[in-house]
């Protein structure tokens, strides 16, 4: 089991992951992960899919290392954007949220990574949310005003530490709430925990402050705490959430509980289209439901892995072509493998692959090692390399299907014929080489002559 490091947004440094010793299944060290999921007011785009992929793959890697990893990825189904989108569509807000939740699950299922262990809904966490707000009010960190409840930013001296923003700069502290509630706030920096029911909103829940619904930030604090407790190992999400969303989560939980929400804050970079962050509000989006059938899940997974999770990445044909070619190269190499352990050079490469992932989840470096493995396998010739190590590496990245799609490995008889044909070609006995090629075709194999020697591919 490797020691794992992760870049922590709070400290700006790469820090050691500190799991709960002996807390997991079979006394394995446990790693609890909370990753912010989508607000379901519309179908998700490729940028929304990046955190789903990043944190799903992180869990797979930790599990492969022997950690008991628990992944929670919420779904925000109560939000201003949902009310607005439902009104435009002329449907109920809950009906729209349910429809978009189902679409999100269906589309992300196509990656073949499985679902998070828990996918809590804000609408199913109201009791916990109300209790958490009450704790903040009782502690002097929040106040009620005409049915709303606001968090008092000045009551929490460490506010701004996660996002590294200056709390004295009002513009830098813009909560993105616009004019809503401005007259009721004691300080423009304060943010909403509970919002009084409005006539144009078709849902509301009871609370000590009157009917209404929760603010966005308190939803995640409550959902995370309800399932994982506080001071869990990793809180993740897109870098666009650092402020105000994650800053507010961190502040309200610490203020209420006296303990941090999470030990590490891990953020993935944005996906950009035409050099600008992919965003529905801007309109420069490529919907996931369109990208999956066009490029395929394996190409998209490879695309996400080719960039370090912390870096922004451009969504363009050049990068997708690179990802597709890399996936096809692995698929082609896998056709020449046999079942079983690899040769002596294989295990050290496998170790380097997992070492790369242990060091701040460096998927580009892991892919470089994977490419080295494929080159060695191609040089070794068909039917001579066991694929167990390759399968283990691909499995962590959700790409084991590249081996399944390759079909059954060549039989020993087919491999022997291919080697005999290669010898005939070396002796310039073209007639014998053609006869052996035809014999292979009759057995269901095509011969492709490459720089690493002949490859056997399924015919047709």
Relevant terms:
single chain, alpha/beta, 460 residues, Rossmann fold, 4-stranded parallel beta sheet, 15 strands
Q: Characterize the biggest β-sheet.
A: 4 strands, parallel
| Proportion in β-strands | 15-25%
Find the CATH topology of the domain at 5-268.
Answer: Rossmann fold
Amino- and carboxy-terminal Cα gap: 44 Å
Poorly predicted parts: none
CATH homologous superfamily of the domain at 5-268, by name?
A: HUPs
The Cα radius of gyration reads 26 Å
User: Strands across the major sheet, in which order?
Assistant: 4-3-9-10
Number of helices: 15
Structural class: alpha/beta
For the record, the CATH architecture of the domain at 5-268 stands as: 3-Layer(aba) Sandwich
> Which percent range fits the helix content?
40-55%
In short:
The chain is an alpha/beta fold and 460 residues long. 42% of the residues lie in helices and 15% in strands. The two termini are 44 Å apart.
Can you walk me through this structure?
Helix 2 crosses helix 3 and helix 10 (346-358) packs parallel to helix 12 (388-396). The chain contains 15 helices and 15 strands. The model has no long low-confidence stretch (mean pLDDT 93). The protein has helices at 46-64, 80-89, 93-109, 126-138, 216-228, 242-257, 288-295, 297-305, 317-334, 346-358, 363-380, 388-396, 401-404, 412-426, 430-442, and strands at 5-8, 13-16, 30-35, 68-73, 142-145, 148-151, 191-196, 212-214, 232-238, 262-268, 271-273, 276-277, 313-314, 445-450, 453-458. By secondary structure, it is of the alpha/beta class.
């Amino acid at each position: 089991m490797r020691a794992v490091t992760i870049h922590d947004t709070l400290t700006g440094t790469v820090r050691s992951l500190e799991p709960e010793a002996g807390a997991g299944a079979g006394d394995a060290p446990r790693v609890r992960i909370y990753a912010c999921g989508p607000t379901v007011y519309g179908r998700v785009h490729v940028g929304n899919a990046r955190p789903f992929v990043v944190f799903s793959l992180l869990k797979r890697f930790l599990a492969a290392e022997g950690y008991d990893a628990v992944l929670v990825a919420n779904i925000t189904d109560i939000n201003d954007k949902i009310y607005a989108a439902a009104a435009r569509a002329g449907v109920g807000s809950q009906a729209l949220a349910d429809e978009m939740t189902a679409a999100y699950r269906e589309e992300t299922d196509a990656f073949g990574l499985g679902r998070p262990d828990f996918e809590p809904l804000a609408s199913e966490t109201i009791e916990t949310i109300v209790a958490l707000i009450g704790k903040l009010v009782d502690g002097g960190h929040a106040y009620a005003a005409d049915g709303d409840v606001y968090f008092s930013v000045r009551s929490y001296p460490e506010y701004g530490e996660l996002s590294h923003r200056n709390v004295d700069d009002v513009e830098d502290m813009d909560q993105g709430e616009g004019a809503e509630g401005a007259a009721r706030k004691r300080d423009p920096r304060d943010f909403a925990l509970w919002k009084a029911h409005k006539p144009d909103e078709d849902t509301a829940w009871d609370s000590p402050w009157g009917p209404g619904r929760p603010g966005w930030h308190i939803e995640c604090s409550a959902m995370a705490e309800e399932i994982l407790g506080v001071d869990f190992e990793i809180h993740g999400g897109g870098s666009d959430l650092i402020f105000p969303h994650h800053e507010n989560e961190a502040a309200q939980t610490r203020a209420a509980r006296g303990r941090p929400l999470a030990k590490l804050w891990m953020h993935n970079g944005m996906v950009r289209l035409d050099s600008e962050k992919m965003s529905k509000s801007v309109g420069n989006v490529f919907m996931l439901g369109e990208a999956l059938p066009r490029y395929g899940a394996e190409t998209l997974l490879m695309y996400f892995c080719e960039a370090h999770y912390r870096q922004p990445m451009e969504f363009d044909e050049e990068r997708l072509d690179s990802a597709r070619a890399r996936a096809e190269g692995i698929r082609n190499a896998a056709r020449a493998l046999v079942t079983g352990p690899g040769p002596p050079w294989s295990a050290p490469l496998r170790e380097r692959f997992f070492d790369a992932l242990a060091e701040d989840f460096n998927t580009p470096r892991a892919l470089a090692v994977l490419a080295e493995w494929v080159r060695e396998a191609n040089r070794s010739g068909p039917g001579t390399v066991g694929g167990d190590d390759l399968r283990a590496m691909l499995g962590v990245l959700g790409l084991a299907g590249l081996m399944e799609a390759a079909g059954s490995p060549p039989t020993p008889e087919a491999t022997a014929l291919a080697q005999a044909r290669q010898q005939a070609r070396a002796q310039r006995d073209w007639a014998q080489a053609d006869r052996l090629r035809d014999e292979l075709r009759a057995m269901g194999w095509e011969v492709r002559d490459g720089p690493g020697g002949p490859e056997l591919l399924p015919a047709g």
